[in-house]
């Protein structure tokens, strides 16, 4: 039995993204998929005294490109601005200091050319903070036939997978009969039961970057607010 998840990389995703990673044996970055503008690929939200704020990585991306073809526009001083914005809004949280060196490495000590490389690096490193032992793959490692469902099924077969785990939004296009014919079980994440934690600034918000959780509760406690206290926690 082997469970697989296949997703496009996002910029510093929310906790639900990491819950999917933690719930499977193999996670595949589908960065050969079409790039979508004004989406989670190059931006995410944090909390501030004035409400939620977008952190956006400037790119040359368009609908005609694959995610792994999109380059970051480093003519803009986005990296230092993101670091300063995180410091400004989270420096007083209990665990921000634990991540200061990591943030400096990401935003000051590296010059990222491709968005996909930045996203994947952040996701893999944050997964290690969360002690997730899932195996990561790139979609470029696999034979990819045409067709959205066919592509996913092909990757799962090449990984000898038996179950596909997806976010609930995929119900609109997943052909479950086709998966069943191919002896693959389909299951969907349930994001409705996450407990709250002590956040800064106003009403609680689940849909912000994982950084919010890490800065507020720390590496050792973060899993308590994602999967450990859920009925079917892995």
Task: Describe what is shown at a glance.
This protein has about 230 residues and is α/β, with parallel strands linked by helices.
Describe the structure.
The chain is an alpha/beta fold and 234 residues long. The protein has one domain (3-225). Helices cover 31% and strands 14% of the residues. It has eight helices and seven strands; from the N terminus they run βαβββαααβαβαβαα. A five-stranded parallel beta sheet has the order 5-2-1-6-7. The longest helix is centred in the middle third of the chain and has 15 residues, at 115-129. The two termini are 15 Å apart. The model has no long low-confidence stretch (mean pLDDT 96).
Annotation keywords:
234 residues, alpha/beta, 5-stranded parallel β-sheet, two-stranded antiparallel sheet, 8 helices, globular
Per-chain topology:
Blueprint: E1 3-7, H1 15-22, E2 26-29, E3 43-48, E4 51-56, H2 78-90, H3 100-107, H4 115-129, E5 135-138, H5 148-158, E6 163-166, H6 176-181, E7 185-188, H7 210-217, H8 219-222
Parallel strand pairs: 1-2, 1-6, 2-5, 6-7
Antiparallel strand pairs: 3-4
Helix pairs in contact: 2-3
Residue share in helix: 25-40%
Shape: globular
Structural class: alpha/beta
- The rounded Rg comes to 18 Å
Number of domains: 1
Strand content: 5-15%
- In which order are the strands of the major sheet placed? 5-2-1-6-7
**Count of discrete alpha- or pi-helical segments spanning 4 or more residues:** 8
């Amino acid at each position: 039995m082997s469970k697989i998840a296949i997703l496009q990389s996002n910029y510093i995703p929310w906790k639900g993204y990491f819950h999917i990673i933690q719930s499977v044996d193999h996670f595949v970055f589908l960065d050969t998929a079409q790039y979508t503008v004004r989406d989670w690929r190059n931006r995410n939200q944090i909390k501030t005294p004035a409400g939620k704020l977008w952190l956006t990585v400037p790119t040359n991306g368009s609908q005609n490109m694959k995610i792994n073809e999109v380059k970051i526009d480093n003519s803009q001083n986005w990296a230092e601005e993101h670091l300063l914005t995180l410091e400004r809004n989270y420096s007083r949280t209990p665990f921000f200091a634990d991540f200061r060196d990591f943030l400096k490495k990401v935003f000051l000590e590296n010059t990222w050319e491709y968005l996909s490389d930045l996203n994947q690096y952040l996701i893999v490193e944050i997964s290690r903070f969360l002690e997730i032992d899932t195996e990561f793959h790139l979609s470029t490692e696999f034979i990819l036939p045409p067709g959205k469902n066919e592509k996913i099924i092909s990757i799962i077969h090449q990984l000898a997978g038996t179950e596909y785990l997806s976010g609930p939004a995929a119900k609109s296009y997943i052909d479950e009969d086709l998966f069943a014919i191919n002896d693959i079980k389909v299951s969907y994440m349930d994001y409705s039961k996450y407990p709250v934690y002590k956040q800064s600034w106003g009403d609680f918000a689940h849909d912000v970057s994982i950084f919010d959780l890490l800065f507020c509760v720390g590496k050792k406690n973060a899993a308590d607010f994602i999967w450990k206290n859920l009925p079917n926690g892995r």
